[in-house]
Amino acid sequence: MTATEQDSRDAGAEILRLIDIMAQLRDPKTGCPWDIEQDFATIAPYTIEEAHEVADAIERKAWGELPGELGDLLLQVVFHAQMADEAGMFDFADCAAAISDKLIFRHPHVFGDESRDKSAEQQVKDWEAIKAVERAGKAERGTLDGVAMGLPALTRAIKLQNRAARVGFDWPNATEVLGKIAEETAELVEARDSLGPEAMEEEFGDLLFVMANLARHLNIDPELALRRANAKFTRRFEAIETALAAVGRRPEDSDLAEMDQLWDQAKAAEKAVG
């Protein structure tokens, strides 16, 4: 596609085209059998997957891939809206209107008469006050109400902890959290040694939850940190495979000592470049 062709595209027309395509795919008589069979529950996992693929493209700085990944994510919204429209619940316009109304309501300093001259801290306080009004409108009474069950576990842990911290249920600093990590680690060792698999799983979950809390106190996004750790592991293990392949071998032909040495070489090479 040329730059001229891209510039001449109309976003509204393309949205309508996508909505029409989705309606045709879901047509009971002439549509795609697979698309017709789907419902909210079966599509939801794809929605989550596509969101992660967007995040992955951003993490890799794969800007050429990003429009396609965002398009895949947009398709998920259109798919859900089409199914809702068929059931007489709502349609895509309702989705767009809902987020537009929410953005305007949450930014009175942009769309209203409030001053934009605020500190970041004050803006956060105002944002939370606005969201509290929204939660009250949804009849959310408990402090933790409305934290989505379908979030990745680490992300949900952070959101739950942030909610609890608003009402004062929080450790005062990261040092206190580090002490709790030591305590939870000891309990995990005890469970491993004498309490059985169910207790071990519970204690492991407690340790992960406290680790998420430490990330919050250190202003670290645990999902992002773990994604980057995964990427680093992948790079270094692939370096091990590449080094072994250069001498006609595979990891299963090696041993831990040799692979540890190759790992350290890959680590040193990364640090030299970085």
Automatic annotation (TrEMBL):
One of its GO terms (molecular function) is ATP diphosphatase activity. Pfam families: MazG (PF03819). Its EC number is 3.6.1.8. It comes from the Bacteria. It catalyses: ATP + H2O = AMP + diphosphate + H(+). Residues 38-111, 178-236 form the NTP pyrophosphohydrolase MazG-like domain. Keywords: Hydrolase. It is an enzyme of class 3 (hydrolase). GO terms for biological process: dATP catabolic process; dGTP catabolic process; dTTP catabolic process; dUTP catabolic process; response to stress; TTP catabolic process; UTP catabolic process. The keyword Secreted does not apply. Belongs to the nucleoside triphosphate pyrophosphohydrolase family. NCBIfam families: mazG, PRK09562.1. This is Nucleoside triphosphate pyrophosphohydrolase.
